[in-house]
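Page 47, continued from p. 46.
Same chain as before, 221 aa.
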Amino acid sequence: MTPRVLQNFKGGRALIVTGRGGPEGALETTLAKLGVASEHVPIVDGRAQLDVARLQADRDILFIDGDLEGVVPIEVNPSSRLPPAPVIGLVGVEAPSRLKALTNLGATSFLRKPVHGGAVYTSLFLGINQFLLRAEMYARLQNLEQRRAGRRAVVRSIIALMQQSGLDEDAAYSQLRRESMRARQSLEAYCEEFLSRRAQPPDNSGRTASMMLSGTDKQSL
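Result:
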């Protein structure tokens, strides 16, 4: 399946993290032409006052000045290596250490400072779509991992059903498949529930109550 490519950024919000009087050049004016609102994130005591929990990946874009060190309080997901929103690095000095720091923040695109208007759209296009592509790939990988883990439940369920009903392997699989479709569940999810139900101890409360009543009747006699 061809991944979705975003070409229109109207309605987006650019959160710009730069030093006081940072040389952003034509960044804000070009973003405005593209329909992207700009906000400067204040820096207090060496830390950007950024509410990471309220970032929206489908709307927000972070522009982070690579000449600032350790001011942005965001962490990438340790599994996906994705930040909470697309990050575009603003690069002045192209030192490997500063490029590495921006990459560690999850930057998927870069802009040279001072920013020239003609470079903004390309950087925005690349940064956002690379972020979306990585997010989609990670979601697919997670789904595959879940299905792979669920396959163990499928195999165990087939064996259990063969032992319980005397079916062969193909018949047991077909029955589980039909039951999962009837329950509107994936085969893996249905088999996990199937095994969970088998693992639960039988409900003997009715039998116990019957025995107690029988005992009472005998005593009354």
